[in-house]
Amino acid sequence: MLITLLTDMPTGTSGMVRSRSGDWPAVWAGRNPGVAGVQYDVEIELGDKFSEIHVYDSNAPKEGIYLKNGQLIVCGTVTTVFDDGIVALDLKPGNLLLEASNPLPTVRVGQVVCASLSEISVFPTDI
User: Fold this and answer.
1) SS3 label, residue 47
2) pLDDT for the residue numbered 50
3) Confidence class for position 106, pLDDT limits 50, 70, 90
4) Is the pLDDT of residue 97 over 70?
5) For the chain, is the Cβ count within 10 Å smaller at the N or the C terminus?
6) DSSP assignment, residue 9?
7) C-beta separation of 76 from 63 below 8 A
8) Is the dihedral of CA 43, 47, 51, 55 positive or negative?
9) Would the pLDDT of 62 be above 80?
């Protein structure tokens, strides 16, 4: 996923980033500090605390990562449901494997899954 840092981000600190779907806070997990205004290709990792997970067949919220009413949201279309309960999501653009500590509701390929969470870490791929 391509993001642009909106703030300088030393390793392990939180700052604001911009992706195609909007601006959102993230924790920088790069070896070197991130520089404001620079675009990075990153992998994302969700914090392990989900406050809510919703599954939509229709009328789904927009897909991607963004803030809504101050809450950090991740929404994507289910592309794969694995036997161990992990779900692959297409964030348009970008992909994410979602593993919840509690069992997810029954989901099918093509549905949209949205999670409210407390933190996202970004790991530059150095590509």
Assistant:
1) coil
2) 67
3) confident
4) yes
5) C
6) B
7) yes
8) positive
9) yes
Bridge partner residues of 22 (DSSP): 19
- Tokens 């675009």 sit at which residue? 39
Other Cβ atoms closer than 10 A to 58: 6
Do 11 and 5 contact (CB within 8 A), yes or no? no
Helix (H) or strand (E) holding 78: strand 71-81
Write down the mean pLDDT value for the chain: 89
Residues in the chain: 127
- The vertex-17 CA angle with 15 and 21, nearest 5°, equals 145
* β-bridge partners, 4: 18, 39
- Cβ 55 vs Cβ 105: under 8 Å: yes
Quote the pTM value.
0.86
Q: Which two tokens stand for residue 96?
A: 């994410």
Using the structure block, give the residue that is written with the tokens 């919703």: 54
- Our CA angle for 9, 14, 100, nearest 5°, is 130
68 burial class (0-12, 13-18, 19+ CB within 10 angstroms)? Answer: middle
Tokens describing residue 23: 């601006």
